[in-house]
Specification:
alpha+beta; six-stranded antiparallel sheet; 63% helix
Length: 643
């Protein structure tokens, strides 16, 4: 029987509270970002509050599946970041509970959220998307609210540009009115000038009633000229009062849903599957019709048969037939006629092929959009699981709660995912990548990262330790830190100067012999480096003995001895012999030529550095032996001095 432990309830409660808060934050941010795309459709339209409420409601329903993965990523980061920062995660692991066991309750919750996300996209999302698209289309078709500005031309009235010099807000009178009224074309434009006027809407809100006072009407009569050279070029009319009826639909009408039948986002999985079958059937029929038409065009021509073409090709191959010679015997007019006829035929065929290509390209694009949307319903649901296994391990690793570091990491992860996902979507929609590859490239990139973070967090590995990466970088490029030996406040054992001096003299002699035997200036043998490696234990032994002497002499109170101790370098005792400890890694690096070259020159550099280090050690040993001798003479002198 499944038992829910208190720890599972505790972690689930912490995650649930944060998830609700971060979900509404992510939903608000996405809605604001989405709103900026359609802000031009809302401003100046005179939309009622119920229409705006429907707009934001359907927008919110559409963006719920996109907000869920972001909320899971951020809330899981903060949850385990808080647990790590307050040492609760350490206490959980100390009790013998692994990180995956701590994830157990949240994994179940995230799976349920993922299923809800898929259900939302397949059932609720399509209806919301269809309603939103209808509403948006209706907003685009609606004329703007009539707010005539002063001093500029206003083109909000169809086929009319209106200029008002001054406007009285109390009476509604317009002064200094100029109107450019278009009918069929620019040649038929009418210009109306008036001292004042009044603009009112009719009761059914389908027309505008424009009343003008004291003005003139100029109208071009070019299209009304029935006979060339007769009539007048324009008509001029002076009026005291004139009433003009303008078409202006200021009411809001919901668009018909049939115009959105090709919107794949407004369909469920079942509808997409049925529509893909229908689209394939339709465009396959079109393709077969185009193929039959092309066969009739190129192979069923009554003027040139297939036998005529074969005969002409055979004669051309035997050089008994020449198109140029036949063309050369034609007259100039016949040549022009032949060229014009050929060019006309080619143009007609090119236009026909362009038109057919446009039809088939539209069909392919429509089918691809349906398939992309079908895969997106699954990919967005799986994105919830992916983001959890990125956010939760990262929170356990960085151990930082709140809205600081988790928000930064969440934004970076989402940006990386969005770049790959959006690029894959665009390439798949354009047909340059396969649909499956374009829609899964973001998962292919981030899934190994999720596995890596989960593994490292479960093994308590310090992934974001700056010292670890700094030491790795320094080892890779052969960098090292200076030795730091300082005077100790409390010294228990004083150094044995005589024994240390003798040891340093022996080390100097061994260094001299080693440098004489191994020519470190010469380039190392490639075969010995990568294939026939023999260990070099001499330098390892010398380094161990030298470090023991340095450790003993660090107990001194003599400042000069301490200064000389800091002159000793840290020697790399293995890097000058081979790249790796394991032989097979050396063989592989030799096969990979660029890697092998880098490692070879790196090892040569370590050989040269070892030679310099040996010289420094020998010189420092000599100085240290001299200083120890001075210390012993001072001690002997103080001992010989009578009290």
């Amino acid at each position: 029987m499944l038992r829910i432990k208190k720890l599972d309830k505790f972690i689930a409660r912490q995650f649930g509270l944060l998830f609700v808060g971060t979900f509404f934050i992510c939903q608000f941010i996405l809605m604001m970002q989405f709103l900026w795309k359609y802000v031009d459709e809302l401003i100046g339209k005179g939309l009622s509050m119920d229409v705006l409420a429907q707009f934001f409601w359907y927008m919110g329903l559409m963006l719920v599946p996109q907000a869920l993965p972001l909320a899971i990523l951020l809330s899981s980061l903060i949850t385990f970041g808080n647990l790590g920062e307050s040492s609760e995660l350490t206490a959980i692991k100390a009790a013998g509970i692994s990180l995956m066991q701590a994830f157990r309750s949240l994994i179940v919750i995230v799976l349920l959220i993922s299923c809800c996300s898929f259900y939302f996209q397949n059932v609720i999302g399509p209806n919301a998307n269809l309603s939103f698209s209808r509403l948006l289309l209706s907003m685009k078709q609606k004329s703007p609210e009539l707010e005539i500005p002063e001093g500029v031309f206003y083109d909000g009235i169809p086929q009319c540009n209106l200029y008002v010099q001054k406007k009285d807000l109390n009476t509604g009178m317009l002064y200094g009115v100029m109107i450019y009224k278009m009918t069929d074309s620019y040649e038929d434009a009418a210009i109306i000038l008036s001292d004042s006027g009044m603009l009112q809407s009719t009761a059914e809100k389908k027309h505008l009633l424009l009343t003008l006072y004291s003005g003139e009407w100029f109208e071009n009569m070019k299209s009304q000229q029935m006979m060339r050279g007769t009539g007048v070029p324009y008509r001029r009319e002076t009026f005291v009062k004139k009433t003009i009826l303008l078409e202006f639909d200021s009411d809001f009408n919901v668009a018909d849903a049939s115009a959105l039948s090709n919107n794949a986002k407004a369909k469920s999985i079942r509808q997409i599957s049925l529509d893909i079958d229908s689209l394939n059937h339709v465009y396959d029929s079109i393709g077969r019709a185009f193929y039959k038409d092309s066969r009739m065009t190129y192979y069923a021509s009554p003027r040139v048969t297939k036998a005529d073409s074969l005969r002409a090709v055979k004669m051309a191959a035997t050089k008994t037939f020449s198109f140029d010679s036949i063309y050369g015997r034609l007259s100039v007019d016949d040549k022009l006629s032949a060229v014009d006829a050929a060019m006309g035929t080619v143009r007609n065929e090119m236009n026909d092929l362009d038109f057919k290509g446009m039809l088939t390209a539209d069909g392919d694009r429509l089918i691809r959009s349906h398939r992309i949307e079908a895969i997106s319903k699954f990919s967005i649901a799986l994105q919830c699981i992916l983001f959890f296994f990125i956010g939760a391990p990262l929170g356990a690793i960085i151990r930082k709660g709140g809205l600081g570091v988790p928000v930064i990491i969440s934004v970076l992860v989402f940006i990386v995912f969005f770049i790959f996902d959006n690029s894959g979507y665009r390439m798949a929609r354009a047909g340059e990548w396969s649909i499956w590859f374009g829609k899964t490239i973001a998962f292919v990139v981030l899934a190994p990262l999720a596995v890596f973070f989960t593994y490292k967090a479960n093994k308590d590995s310090v992934v974001f330790n700056v010292d670890f990466y700094r030491n790795l970088f320094m080892r890779m490029f052969g960098l090292r830190t200076a030795r730091g030996v300082y005077m100790k406040e409390v010294i228990i054992d004083t150094p044995d100067y005589r024994a240390d001096a003798d040891e340093l003299e022996r080390i100097s002699k061994e260094i001299h012999d080693y440098a004489h035997e191994h020519n470190l200036l010469m380039a190392p043998n490639v075969v010995n480096v990568f294939f026939k490696y023999t260990p070099d234990h001499v330098i390892e032994e010398i380094s161990e003995r030298l470090e023991a002497v340095i450790e003993d002499l660090s107990n001194t109170k003599d400042k000069k001895v301490l200064t000389l101790l800091n002159d000793y370098p840290y020697m790399a005792v293995k890097a000058h012999t081979r790249p790796f400890e394991r032989k097979w890694l050396n063989v592989v690096s030799a096969i990979l030529v660029p890697v092998g070259l880098f490692l070879y020159f790196r090892m040569w550099r370590f050989r040269l550095r070892l030679l310099r280090d040996l010289r420094v050690v020998k010189h420092t040993n000599d100085e240290m032996v001299k200083r120890i001798a001075e210390i012993e003479r001072l001690k002997a002198g103080r001992a010989a001095t009578p009290a």
